[in-house]
Amino acid sequence: MAGRLSQALILISALFAYFCPESSAGSLEDGLLVITVATEESDGFKRFMRSAQKYGYDVEVLGMGLEWTGGDIDLHPGGGQKVKLLKEAMEKYQDRKDLIIMFVDSYDVVLTAEYKEILKQFKKSESRVIFSAEGFCWPDLSLAERYPLVKLNEKRYLNSGGFIGYAPELWEIVSSAPLDDADDDQLFYTRIFLDDNLREQYAIKLDSKGEIFQNLNGALDEVDLKFKGTEAFMYNTRTGTTPTVIHGNGPIKHEFNRLANYLAGHWTPTHGCISCSEDTFSLKDFAIEDYPSVTMGIILPHPTPFINEFFQRIAKLDYPKQKIDLYVFNRVEHHSKDVTAFLETHSDEYHSVKSVTPDQNQLETEGRNNGIDWCIHNNCKYYFSVDSLVQMTNPDSLKLLIEQNRTFIAPQMSRRGKYWSNFWGSVTQGGYYARSADYLDLVTGKRQGLWNVPYISNIYLIQASKLPALVGAFTTIREDVDADIQFTFTLRRKGIFMIVTNLKNFGHLINCDTYGTDHLHNDLYQIFENRHDWVEKYIHDNYSQALNPRTEIEQPCPDVYWFPVVSATFCKHLIEEMEHFGQWSGGKNKDDRLAGGYENVPTVDIHMNQIGYERHWLHFLHQFIMPMQQKIFIGYVHDPPTAHMNFVVRYRPGEQDRLRPHHDSSTYTINIALNQPGVDYEGGGCRFVRQNCSVVDSRVGWSLIQPGRLTHYHEGLLTTKGTRYIMISFVDP
Fold first, then answer.
1. Count of Cβ atoms closer than 10 Å to residue 126 Cβ
2. pTM of the shown model
3. How far apart, in whole angstroms, are the C-alpha atoms of residue 33 and residue 26?
4. How many alpha carbons lie under 13 Å from residue 582 in its C-beta half-sphere?
5. Active-site residue flag, 724
6. I need a labelling partner for 461 at 20 to 30 A (CA). Which of 149, 515, 597, 601 fits?
7. For 113-136, how does the pLDDT look when each residue is reduced to its tens digit (9 = 90+)?
8. Is 218 left (phi over 0), alpha (psi -120 to 50) or beta?
9. What is the DSSP string of 451-480?
C-alpha cells in the first residue's frame, strides 16, 4: 500500500506542476509561457508534457476534461475550439507586454531543447509573432497564390500547430473575429496573415526556415535525426537549422512517433534507453492480495505447433493465478484436447475461467472482442492477450510488462533466426506493413528500449482504463482487412500508443504457415519451419555435450560407438506415429517398397517415406548424425549423407523376435533405441559376431553407430517378451 501511496503523490505533484505553472520555477521566470489544448490526458499529451518538463517549460493546459467539439481535424478542417479556449485564457495576459506566449498542439508535438533556445531564436527574428510553416496550403488551396514568396528550400504556408508571440499581439489576433468550435483554426490564422495590413500591424512572420518549428508532414526527407551525448535532435538538411518544436502533423504520425522514440532524451546510441525507467513501479512493493487483477485472453485462432509447450509456459507464468481471470478462445477442433487437458489440470488455480469452444462457431473477431468485454465485466485492471503461436519462455513476462506502467505494451517477439516479429516499425497509407529505418536494429536487439510502433499483434497488455474505447475494435469494416490491422488502426485513431519492449528476452513466435494436422504427432514434422523448438523437444539434452571435442564417446564394442541423440519424447512419438500408420511389413523377402522388390535380410518395419518423413529424416542425418560421425570416424566426409533405407523395426515374440547375422549395405549404420529394455520388452540387443561382443542394455534415445558392409557382421538378439522398437538408417550405401 505504501507503494501505491507514493505513486499517487508523484502523480498529484506532476499534475499540479503543469496545471499551475506559476507555482514552479521555469521558463515563466524568463518571460515565456507555453499554452496548449488537451481535452484528455492521452499518451501523446504525456509525451509532450514530459518533454516540456525536461527542458524547463512552464505549460498552461486548456480544456482538460472538456468534450472535444472541434471536429476530427486529422481528417477534416476544424479546431476552432482551440482558438476559443486560447482567447479565454489570453484575456488575463492581454496587457503583459513583456510576456512571450508560445502556443503548440500537444498530442503530436515534442520539444527537444531548453526554452532559452526558443527565446533566443524568437528575439533574434525581431518579430512580434511567428507562425510555423509547412509546404501545404491547407485547408483552402485557393489562397496559395496570396502568400508571400520565400527562398528556395523554405516553407511558404502557415501552420497553426505552433506559433509564438508577445501576449498583447496574440490577444488581439485571437480576439479579432468570432468563430465556431468546428471552424478551422488554421484558416482563421491564415486570413489574418494574408491581410497585408494585419500582418504588418502585428509584425507576423512565418518560420519558413524551421528555426523554431518543424512540421514533418511532407518534410520527412528534409530532416535527419542527430545524436549528441544524451540528446537527440532534428536537423533540417535543406535550411541548416535545428528546430526545437517538432510537430508530427498530418498523416505521418506513425513516422513522427518513431522519431519521437529518440527525441527529448529517450534513447541515444551512447546511453541507450534513458527514459525506460521513468514512471515504472515494482510489484515487489505489493502484497499478493494487492496485485492488479488481470484478465488473460488465450487465443487459438488456427492450428499451431508445439501447443503443449505453449500451455506449459502459460502455466509457469510467475504471477498469482488467483489474480487472473482466464478467457480461452479456441477455434481449432484439433486443439480441443490440448485445451481440455490444460483446463483440467489448472483451471482451479485461477480466479475464474471462461472457455469458448470450436462448436460455438464464433468468428475470430468475435472471440477477440469478447476477450476485451470479459475483462471489462470482471472489472480488471489489465487485459493480457496471448495468441497460441507465442512461446513465452520468460516466466516473469507479465510482471515485467505491468511494472513498465504503459497504456499498451507488448514484449518484442520474433521467429527464431528470422526478422518476422509481432510488430511493424512503419505502415503504409493503407495501414499495411512497411519497414522502418530502425526495424532491423529493434528486432535483432541491437537497439534496446521502449518503442512506439504503429502495429502490434499476438501478445500485448492493455490498461483497463482504455478498454471501453476498444469495445468492438476487432470488427473489420472491409473483408480484405485483417482483424489485427483493424484493431491497430483503432488504437492509432484513439491516440493509444502501442509500445513494444525489447529490454528483456521474453520468448519467440512459432511459424504456423505450413503446419498440417494430418499426422498423429505433427510437431515431429516441424524440423524445418521451427528448428529451435523442434530441437528443444526432440533432441537429447546431452547431445551437445557428447559432440564436444573433449567428450570421449563410449565404445561398448570395438569400433561401435554409443551416444545420446534424440529425446524420450521423440522416441515415444515416432513409435506412436508408426503404430498409428500401422502398415507394418510382413518380414518377408518379397518387398514391393524396394526398387528390386526383394529384401535379403527382411524385418518387420515401416519406412520413413511411408509416413512422409523421409525428407525430414535425411535432414536429421545431416544436422545431427553427420557431425558425430565426423568426430568418431575421423577423415571420412560425405556431405550431405545419403540414405535410401531409413526404417523403424519392430521385434516381438510371435511376429519377428530376432534377426539373423548379416552385413549392412552402408558405409556406416545408425541404430537408435526407441524404448526401454526391462520395461517395455525383455531380451533383445545387437551382437557383433566377429568381435564376439553384444550391446543389450539399450538406452532410450541413444544411437549405436558402426561401420557397415565388411567388418561388423551382426545379428539381432532374441526378444522374449513385449515389443522392442529401433530406428535404423543405412548411411552412404
1. 8
2. 0.93
3. 9
4. 3
5. yes
6. 515
7. 999 999 999 999 999 999 999 999
8. left
9. EEESEE-SEEEEEGGGGGGGTTTT--SSTT
